[in-house]
What we know:
The complex is a heterodimer.
Chain A: H1 3-12, H2 19-29, H3 32-37, H4 40-45, H5 51-62, H6 66-75, E1 79-82, H7 90-94, E2 101-106, E3 115-120, H8 126-141, E4 145-148, H9 154-164, E5 169-172, H10 186-195, E6 197-200, H11 212-223, E7 226-231, H12 238-247, E8 251-254, H13 265-272, E9 276-277, H14 281-288, H15 300-303, H16 308-316, E10 322-323, H17 324-331, H18 335-347, E11 351-355, E12 358-361
Parallel strand pairs in A: 3-4, 3-7, 4-5, 5-6, 7-8, 8-9
Antiparallel strand pairs in A: 1-2, 2-6, 10-12, 11-12
Chain B: E1 2-11, E2 14-25, E3 30-34, H1 39-42, H2 44-54, E4 63-69, H3 81-91, E5 103-105, E6 108-109, E7 115-116, H4 121-130, E8 135-139, H5 143-146, E9 153-157, H6 160-167, H7 201-213, E10 217-220, H8 227-233, H9 243-255, E11 271-272, H10 280-284, E12 285-286, E13 291-292, H11 294-297, E14 302-305, H12 313-317, H13 320-325, E15 327-332, E16 335-340, E17 344-349, H14 367-376, H15 379-382, E18 387-390, H16 396-399, H17 408-425, H18 442-445, H19 450-463, H20 468-484, H21 491-499
Parallel strand pairs in B: 3-4, 5-8, 8-9, 10-17, 10-18, 11-14, 14-17
Antiparallel strand pairs in B: 1-2, 2-4, 6-7, 12-13, 15-16
Amino acid sequence: MEELSYKYFLASLSDELSAEKLCQLSAVAGSAREVYHMTEGQLKQIAFFTDAETEKLLARRKGWDLERKEAELHQKGICLVTREDEAYPEDLREIAQSPYGIFYKGRMTDPTKPTVAIVGARMCSEYGREAAGQAAMQLAAAGVQVVSGMAKGIDSAGHFGALRGGGTTFAVLGCGVDICYPPGSRILYEKIEAAGGILSEYPPGTPPIPMRFPMRNRIISGLSRIVIVAEAREKSGSLITADYALEQGKDIYAVPGRMTDVPSAGCNRLIKQGAGIFLSVEDFLRDLGIVMGKRGGQDIFSKNLLEKEETLVYSVLDLQPKNIEEIRQKTKLAVTAVMQSLITLQKKGMVREVFKNSYIRKNR
Amino acid sequence: MYSMVKTAIVCGIGSVEVLVEADVSDGMPVFHMVGFLGAEVKEAGERVRTALRNSGYVLPAKRITINLSPADLRKSGSGFDLPIALALLAALGVLPGEALEGLLVIGEIALNGRVQPVNGVLPMIADAAERGITKCIVAAENAPEAELVSGVTVYGVEELSEVIALLNGKKTIKQEKERRHADPVQGKASGGDFSDVSGQSFLKRACEVAVSGMHNLLMVGPPGSGKSMLAGRVPTILPDMSKEERMEVSKIYSVSGLLDHDNGLIGVRPFRSPHHTITPQALAGGGRYPKPGEISLAHNGVLFLDEMTEFKKETLEILRQPLEEKQVRLVRLGGTYTYPADFLLIGAMNPCNCGYYPDMNRCRCSVSSLERYREKLSQPLLDRMDLCVEAASLGYNELTGKEHGETSAVIRARVNAVHQIQRERFLGTDIRYNSQIPASMLEKYCSLDRMQKQYMKEVYEQLELTARTYHKLLKVARTLADMDGSMRIRMEHLNEAVCYRSLDKKFWERM
Lengths: 364, 511
């Protein structure tokens, strides 16, 4: 029997037993194969293993068909890397509650390349979304691997940005890697799998339950050298990732917001507590030790010659969505003229309609 | 002895003639009524006998038969009391039979002989006039309404004894000619003026476009942005109604018992704003004996649905067919009832549960609550909204600003002009407004040149628009061109129309 099938058995217990216990078990026994062949008596002799935990392991082993399970894994195109393997990321080995195994679809992160996590709130503002997307895009273009959690909002913006930048991106899920969560993000899921990998410590088929999502954050930060919090409210779940990153000794960067911006309150607090300030990608890459090549592309204005009114409309727009009525009041143009300019600007790709009749400036 | 009196019952907003026959003959003394009678018509017998006795006429101990024909039509309503009483009196020889010829009688009787008004007198008299009736007797309260029909002499009566005297030629009833409204003046819609609303010129512009081409309008915006305020003022910029339109509206209101007796034909376009707890029946019309619903009461006017996402889904779905057919057909055991329902639909809704999305500084919704909110929108109904605009949340400066803009009268003059253009363009077709142009005629009325087509193709790709919005967009562009007095649709009209395109569900997607 292949070694992998035993490892799969041990790694599959991650949905019921803590990562710590699994690692200890494999260390005590020597390998997953040994664990599988341990008798009930032997298991009960292990000091750190409670009877309840033994029961769980035995119950799992009872219904476990090594051959069939391994075939299933292959059939679904899922790979597994465990602490017993050389390919296991060194970064993960050192963190607290290091996972015993990582299931993945697509690829595993490349340890030779710098890895950065981009995390943030699901209910994000256009500012946060744009910041995460831009950062991810440029980082990916510079060869940085972008890790996030595939949630709506900032996470998705980060993944999409990295994909736009033509780089690799990895999503760490809180459910089995064969389950797309959130279910509406199917397209993103498939794109990430093709351009990078979908990762999870939980065995295939594990349903998404809220309890598991904070736990996967330790893997997100564990895999990365730096964690960028793009946008987080005062009590955001993204701050859990920041806490893990601190624990693991990683650097944290936060995208600053204005002091009145509720969606950025958590980020601003992180900065006050000493997190790095994410001002621009160039700046950030310098900290990372990567020198960016010359930026291609012309200035947006020299490429698209704008009419006077269009320039005026463009000038009052920023990353805070503005309604036609607000734009009209700021520009003092006729409402019909504002509409003309907005559509032309949208057509030129310089303005985006983020909600019905609400517009933001679009950076390219 | 036999006698016959003509009356009518309401069916939809038209009427059907009903003959009331009475026969008094020897035999077992009974009072018998036949002719597919509803419960309230069966009770008429008791009311009539008592009222006659109280007016001094005791029925003889004879076999009395009353028949309401046609016998296959179910009779309902309380307007049969007076015709039954008169037919009976004529059969008894109290009234001369010839006095009842060419006469239409409608009215309920109280036990003391008082004649009471009934609903739907206007459509009944109007139809009767077309059938050649020249005289009618109605309750005094119904007389002003009946007098709106030209060519019919109206006798408004208060007492049964008064009717008997009148038909015996012993009394003439003062026809209060002076009360008649020869041509009621166009009433001015009440409820404010467009200049009351400060700022919001984008919303005002959208309202004007909506009314100009009769395009349904959906307003999205945070609480307190003036959506309801503006919607309530839309009737003030609606164009005048023609005589026929006023008659149609008045008939509907007459059937519903909502006609104001003192003001003659309704001169102000209706504005109906039902609460969101309304039932499907109340909205579309219904009941065992159907009555017009809110959509018919809004005929030729505005139906405003505030907080549109709070309406029950099945209630809103009911609007789909009337919006296409401009009428609602209710089928009952007793027959099919058709009510006109050609209205301008204006909807208002918040962008999310808390009302502030996409302003993340104020919005307190979660991703899942946004998704639930999005599910409340009915796509088929969204597809029927030609215009969709977002209202901005007003700051203090704008609320108190001096920027009041044009008055309703100025806007209304422009709207009238655009309606005139449409009348001329669609002369000889079924189409009345730009919003009604069918897909097959778009090429004729909304043609674009090659450059514009290319431009629209690019805009579509760039803005990721869907094909189904394209037709609506063209119709709106047609209206915008008409407002500009332009024969051809120009680039700026297309651009503006793109701004009004319908709400896209992707705006709630938090990708």
